[in-house]
From TrEMBL:
Any single biological process term in GO: bacteriocin immunity
InterPro entries: LciA_Immunity-like
Protein name as it appears in the record: Gar-IM
Amino acid sequence: MTKEDKGLDELLEIVYDFVLNPDLSDDERKIGLLAKADLERGRYQIAVLNQIIASFQILAVEKKGLSSEADEFYKKIYALLIKDKPIGTNIGYMGINGSYLS
């Protein structure tokens, strides 16, 4: 198993656990399900992480916060994005690329 495969498996496990949580709002679960589908189709992991982050940021502003479960998931995903993003990637720019909810 390559390092990339291990990273994908870890990310998929985090997303699977998230979408199965019964305490999520419909929008929070929708973000997770769309991200899961993208990862299973082989979409670039950094792009998926970025879109998850952007989606939760927009949702948090619109709904004046996230559930505690989504907040914990957001923190995990953001840490993975920071760890795995290529050197020189502008995080501020990455956030404008769209949301799963738009």
